[in-house]
Specification:
The chain has eleven helices and ten strands. By secondary structure, the protein is an alpha+beta fold.
Length: 483
């Protein structure tokens, strides 16, 4: 105990610098709002309710849902290639004049027989004629059909890309949910810790006020063991605590304002947390098990796997350029024209055609070859990124695992230290009332107790924070992992 007293001459200032430091750190992890006044108060029973409200109101979640709708619409667009494409056209056309065909002058020699005893040659001259083809006003309607018979695997490849895009969008939406849950947990625990630090500060102030009254009483009416310097030192500490509490209160309000923002609520609403303590639930997990499971549920890993499948389909799409495209085509046409002779006679106004079209690329300047190379390069690049992600996820899981174990050990050790510090503080206060210890020893005991409380709460917060981080990385809750 004497060693503690000797090393704690400057402890009062260190304690409140410590408390202020952690409050500021926690508040800087959240958006700062200039206006904290609230017209409505919302009581939050627990963190599950907080997450539920955030998932209902968060804009990023709504954006993710729209991304899924976009991907599904693109998938249905890709499926349309399996169906025959039928389209109709209707056009009205007015030319500057009626079209004519100029029949040139023609001279022909004919042999006439049967009328005379012998054949007679006759020369016939036909003058130039202007033959009208149609009226200048036309109304043309047509129906066209195209149905792919062979595309070299291009349609299948495009549909596979669209299918994987839908899965990627769904995983992205799940990652958004996980991010919202993680952010809300992080800010929620920070808010609870800020409330707790404020409570510790209030307790310190009340304790030192009581100590100040006792010191003043013993100074004025005591045996002379308590000096005026003891009284002034205690009074200075009380004044310092009172001024520091204003900053702690400000940080507490800012943390709750940040929580309100993350929940998607209006800045005019005030969140009241009913939980006064962060729950501490020790866990026992194997690092190898966690690393093995992260590749099964982590959304980033799942996204990159579907992206690899999409790029493989992209390679097949590019390779389809080497093959011919065969399609069944057909057309039905009707022409409306007031002139019923020429090219728009009764036999020419309605016609149909059906056939097979073949598109065979012979030379495109190595376009297809380079498209295939580009797609393969993208695939190799993504595979390398997957290797980096694999190592990065394992390192993050390991770091979080170690931090959880560190926090668990710290909390368990600090809990025993807290019990000892409370007993020590109580004994010093009772001894001080009996004039058995000096004022400095009582102050040191109270400060030491406050430090241990702050360290204990810090450890509980770190443990909860690392649990939330582990769940975010794993893509599932701790309970699901244990099951």
């Amino acid at each position: 105990m004497k060693k503690i007293i000797k090393s704690s001459k400057k402890t009062p200032t260190c304690l409140f610098h410590y408390v202020v430091f952690w409050s500021i750190v926690l508040s800087l992890q959240t958006p700062i709002f200039a206006e904290t006044g609230a017209s409505n108060k919302i009581e939050i029973a627990n963190i599950d309710q907080c997450i539920q409200i955030a998932l209902e109101n968060n804009r990023n979640k709504q954006i993710s849902q729209h991304d899924i709708e976009i991907a599904e619409s693109q998938y249905r667009q890709a499926l349309s290639a399996y169906w025959p494409q039928i389209k109709t056209e209707l056009s009205g056309l007015r030319m500057d004049q009626d079209p004519y065909f100029i029949f040139p002058e023609e001279t022909s020699t004919y042999s006439i027989s049967g009328m005379f005893p012998y054949p007679i040659d006759a020369t016939v001259r036909v003058p130039q004629k202007d033959v009208k083809l149609m009226n200048r006003d036309n109304l043309i309607s047509s129906i066209q059909l195209a149905y792919p018979l062979m595309t070299g695997g291009k349609i299948d490849a495009i549909i596979k890309q669209a299918t994987n895009a839908v899965e990627i969008a769904k995983i992205s939406a799940r990652r958004t949910d996980l991010q919202i849950m993680y952010d809300v947990k992080r800010i929620y625990f920070a808010s609870v810790l800020a409330n707790k630090l404020k409570q510790i500060g209030d307790e310190i102030l009340e304790q030192f006020k009581a100590t100040l009254k006792l010191t003043e009483h013993m100074y004025q009416q005591g045996s002379g063991r308590v000096k005026k310097t003891d009284f002034l030192r205690t009074k200075t500490i009380v004044s310092t605590i009172a001024s520091t509490l204003a900053l702690l209160e400000s940080n507490r309000v800012l943390a709750q304002s940040a929580l309100t923002n993350y929940m998607g609520l209006s800045w005019k609403q005030e969140v009241i947390l009913k939980e006064t303590d962060i729950p501490f639930n020790p866990i026992q997990l194997e690092l190898s098990t966690l690393v093995g499971q992260v590749y099964q549920f982590n959304p980033d890993w799942n996204q990159i796997e579907f992206a690899l499948k999409a790029i493989e389909a992209m390679i097949k799409e590019a390779q389809s350029g080497y093959f011919p495209i065969i399609a069944l085509i057909g057309q039905l046409t009707h022409i409306e024209n007031a002139y019923n002779k020429g090219v728009v006679g009764p036999k020419n106004t309605d016609n149909w055609a059906i056939g097979v079209a073949v598109h065979l690329p012979l030379f495109e300047g190595f376009l297809t070859e380079n498209r295939v190379k580009e797609a393969k390069a993208k695939l190799n690049k993504l595979k390398q990124q997957q290797i980096l992600l694999k190592e990065g996820l394992a390192l993050q899981i390991k770091d979080t695992f170690l931090q959880i174990n560190r926090a668990q050990t710290q909390v368990m050790e600090m809990k025993q230290a807290l019990e000892s510090a409370e007993e020590n503080c109580d004994l010093n206060i009772r001894a001080y009332q009996l004039d058995l210890v000096e004022t400095k020893e009582v102050i040191d005991a109270q400060i030491f107790l406050s430090l241990v409380k702050a360290q204990y709460m810090k450890g509980v917060h770190d443990h909860a924070f690392e649990r939330a981080r582990l769940e975010f990385l794993m893509g599932q809750t701790i309970q699901q992992q244990l099951e």
